[in-house]
Amino acid sequence: MSSALSEFLYPNSVAIVGASKDPTKRGFKAIQTLLTEKYPGMIFPIHPRETEILGLTAYSDVNAVPNRIDLALVCTPAHTVPDVIKSCGEKGIKGAVILAGGFSESGEVGQQLEQATVAMARQTGVRLVGPNTSGLFNTHKSCNLVGFSELKKGPIGILSQSGNMALALAIDGQINGHIGFSTYIGVGNEAEIEFDEYLDYFGNDENTQALAVYVEGFKQGRRFLAAARRVTQKIPVVLYKSGKTAVGQQAAKSHTGALAGNYAVSQGVMRQAGITVVSRADHILPLAEALALLPPPLQSKRVAILADGGGHATIAADALIERGMILPPLSEETRAKLAAKLPPLQR
Questions:
Q1: Chain segment 58-94, per-residue pLDDT in tens
Q2: CB neighbourhood size of 143 (10 A)
């Protein structure tokens, strides 16, 4: 795990800023989930007045906590976030997950607030996930800051601009999945950490063998593609991109502030970068699982087909050629070896 993000994505301690005794609040549910799923690290509820929440000692501020904190989950309203990040920096917290919306996706005032938050983060050395994110989980650390239930530990990473899409993948994994998930990150507005850095994290994560991605648009398309070229040499990346139509692109902009771009162009360049692009959302998980179980990526585009019938062989040939693979004719030596092993009708 050589990624700089691993230090807080595998946290040994978590502060819940905006912790609550109200069961309907995210600051309650996060603590409850961590306790229920037996998170092995330390949990520090942060509340200005409460001294105890769910049996845990609560503190008025992160700087009042006597122990080291690796990650902060920020559950407070948007206007409070710059000051929260300042406190996190003073405490030496490496990463903060900002749940609140109301930033760049919401207009000019929100853009200014986001800029102020990022400026504070860079000044104090705090890395930001979000804002406007659904959160994250790491099953290999039993750290679930999203609230999805019954997550099976496994090798599939999820990187998504939509919490609902991540939830759909998690439910699909419960019902139809076979091998489970590693880390999920909801990128939100990508105010400070952007897609390319998350891709590199997953490419270096020893517990991730394939990555499922839902994307609406890119802030830095060239950097994303450069990272994709690096990462797809290590693990398969399966991606579904929305924003295919003008209406969909506008919806993406209002959701996370993403620039959706031309779908056909995006699809082509992503495939050139080694990404497996799917046209249906329900294909993301099955393909990611299948690719996770395969050997490492091929070092050549030259392949052969082994099939039990002509129809399947023909379909496979079409699919491979359409995706840029090469089906070279078998050499005479190979044909002779096969002829010695196959029945006469199958030679």
A1: 999 999 999 999 999 999 999 999 999 999 999 999 9
A2: 26
Place of tokens 């009042």: 64
Q: Which two tokens stand for residue 27?
A: 């600051």
Find the range with the poorest average confidence among 50-64, 70-84, 96-110, 297-311: 297-311
The length of the chain is 347
The set of residues, in sequence order, having a beta carbon less than 8 Å from that of 311 and lying 6+ positions away, is: none
**Residue written as tokens 């005794």?**
21
CA 70 to chain CA centroid, nearest Å: 19
The tokens describing 143, both together, are 């750290």
Domains of the chain, CATH where assigned: 6-129 (3.40.50.720), 148-292 (3.40.50.261), 310-346 (no CATH)
Peptide bond into 329 cis (omega under 30): no
pTM of the predicted protein model? 0.86
Distances (CA, A) of 7 to 4, 12, 72, 132: 6, 9, 12, 22
| CA-based nearest residue to 74, from 36, 104, 54, 100 | 100
> In the structure encoding, which two tokens stand for residue 23, read together?
């069961």
Reported as a single tens digit per residue, the pLDDT across 186-214 is: 999 999 999 999 999 999 999 999 999 99
Contact 113, 82 (CB under 8 A): yes
Helices (H) and strands (E) counted in the chain, each on its own, are: 12, 14
**DSSP per position, 62-119:** GGG-SS--SEEEE-S-GGGHHHHHHHHHHHT--EEEE----SGGG-HHHHHHHHHHHH
How far is Cα 97 from Cα 232, in angstroms, rounded to an integer? 27
